[in-house]
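Report of the visiting student (M.T.), summer placement. My assignment was to run the structure pipeline on a short list of targets and document each run. The first record concerns Probable N-succinyldiaminopimelate aminotransferase DapC.
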Amino acid sequence: MAPMTSSARPLLNRRLAEFGTTIFAEMSALAASTGSINLGQGFPDTDGPEEIREAAVRALRDGRGNQYPPGPGVPELRMAVAAHQERRYGLSFDPDTEVLVTAGATEAIAATLLALVEPGDEVVALEPYYDSYAACVAMAGGTRVPVTLRPHEETRDGVTRRRFRLDLDELRDAVTDRTRLLLINTPHNPTGTVLTRAELTEIAALAVERDLLVVTDEVYEHLVFDGAEHVPLATLPGMRGRTVTIGSAGKSYSFTGWKVGWVTAAPALVSAVRAAKQFLTYVASGPFQYAVAEALTLPDTYFEEFGADMLAKRNLLVAGLAKAGFGVFEPAGTYFVTTDIRPLGESDGFAFCRALPERAGVVAIPNAVFYDHREAGAPFVRFAFCKRASVLEEAVERLGTLAG
Ligand SMILES: *Cc1c(COP(=O)(O)O)cnc(C)c1O
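After the run finished, the structure tokens were exported:
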């Protein structure tokens, strides 16, 4: 197709130039053309609860949400989000002024950064990061300042685990007079790290000391394993008023296609985020908002069963990857496992992932795409385990030929 303008100027603007293509498109195409099992992209291959799907059908049939819902979200959902935060974490939010429904966590992240970041502001974020963070900081005209999570061995209760750890001194050093906010993600995608209460307490102390806003992406709040505890940053001293917390029905209820997410924060923060959000989608997912309101009132046994199911899948994949010769960082949360390919005699995750479909019929994602310091992520590769057990078993069998 001919370009729309004859000038030599590139079509994609300078802010987004570096985000032109995504690895997910390339890898999903490879999966399709080679008939590989796609453990690259993180979406479940089984849908969320039947009764919640039925609730969406009912809302559609009853004409609830078929026209523009209210800008902040339907009251039923805002009340359900507030009740969930109260019940799970003892955090009390006013559904009218402190809850905002968004088009998934993705829009919550975009609107929050567009609202709060001034051109030239620095945004400190944990690296590797979820892929939309860098693009949204760029769209807001901000500068991203990555703090790298580093591989680390820890022995607890006689068991040695490998985990990606936050260096709190590095975080402290990353904060300057230009820092506008800290962008935190726990449980952390792609490493599976769940920040501990001690780590989060230090982050909170830093935010208070330097008077920073904190945006915390907690979409995996219900996916924590082995007794790990998800601690919402907003529960820690001094944080309730300075924290924007982001959640999503996509990850918590296995409805990633519904794009229902939310923000909880103090009224002034919610107002600011809403100012940006109203010009992005204005509103989204009308009937699904009613269904998610019902999902949020499911008894906690839903989360227990969901967590137990994901734990079994994690264990299956982790064991298979270890047996296949990968170095494995057993995740304490999320539905991803990060591996080290060096024990397999490899060092370049990009090359490894490009060859893996041909070699073993499995698709994974090179973690380097989630880093600014590409070299820090080079030997790491991410697999998703939110797939049916039979799919994971087949993937593990195929990967078993690698060491061979
Ligand atoms: C999946 C994901 C999101 C996006 O969530 P949606 O509700 O699907 O928009 C945001 N952050 C992280 C860390 C994720 O893994």
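The pocket of pyridoxal-5'-phosphate is lined by residues 104-106, 130, 185, 189, 217, 219, 248, 250-251, 256, 259, 261 (CB under 6 Å). The mean pLDDT is 95. I thank the supervising group for their guidance throughout the placement.
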